[in-house]
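In response to reviewer comment 3 from the previous cycle, which asked for concrete evidence that the modeling workflow produces usable outputs, we include below a single protein chain processed end to end. The sequence was submitted unchanged, and the resulting structure tokens are shown without manual editing.
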Amino acid sequence: MSDVGRTLWLAERRNGVGASDVAGILGLSPWSSPYSVWADKVFGLGDDRDTAAMSFGRRAEPMIAAWFHELTGLYVAGEQTRVHDVEHPWRFCTLDGKVYETPDNEDGEFLAAVGAFVEDDALGLLQIKTTSATPKEWEDGIPVMYQCQEQYEMAVTGAKRVYLAVLHLAFGRPDLKVYELARDQTDIDLIVKAVDTFWHDHVIPGVPPETDAHQATTYATKHLPASVGDMTEVSDEVKRTLLDIADLKESRKGIDELLDQLENRVRSALGDCTEGYHGGHLVVSHREQSKRYIDETAFRGSMPATAAKFTAETRYRVLRQHKPKKRKKQ
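The workflow returned the following structure tokens.
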């Protein structure tokens, strides 16, 4: 997928709920939360940074599809086909491909997959994944967040099965495994109900879901659009929440001070020794280590023009509590 294609894909996915959104909506994703998915749909606040791992995964898809064919003898067609549920257009998915038993013709051209899934000769859908997890970590079954994603794809397309071609990259030893997931209507009914509720109760009216401690929620709340100078009257609940925050911060301050005191006590007891044993077992160490860093002050002082070229800016909002004071008159 080109940079332009990725930009268009990111923009279009905000017009509905895609398969990659489902685990976040259900609270099962390590990368997204219900709130962050909502903020992405309503404000376009998704963390769209393209990491090296994400870029590698996209670039590896054609190779993995060919590898899947070599392993299974099955054929792949219709790569990166966008499919919408005809009756519920806000439900959509982008297929990594459809799986067939034979090619289309003698020239070896694959069958085309256009529009919604139809009852053709396709055996099912293909989903391609790259992961740092070992195959052993998948022995107990496909991770639940991926099961949700694939069941949703089957809900949108009508497919009966998904083949997952998973490239395990643990410890620098690539290992491609193929897993199958059958359609489960009970799971689909639960997932679709959650997606539709999320879309109609939160995205369409712009009403946020409950917040949580997920890092994606933190990112989203810090990047909500700001109207400088605008004021609002907060509720009693928010006021109580602010008091709770203040109490917790004060408690944390005391805990941090106690931890510092206790750790200093252990450091003092070790003296110039780097390891401490109890009953013949290593229980603590205090070893020296080094850390390299750029001296920013010196860099800017000696090479200001160069430093300016490599200076980036990120904008976010900071939450600060203030002592109660009267609102300024307009």
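The chain has two domains: 3-222, 236-309. We consider this sufficient to address the reviewer's concern, and the full set will be provided in the supplementary archive.
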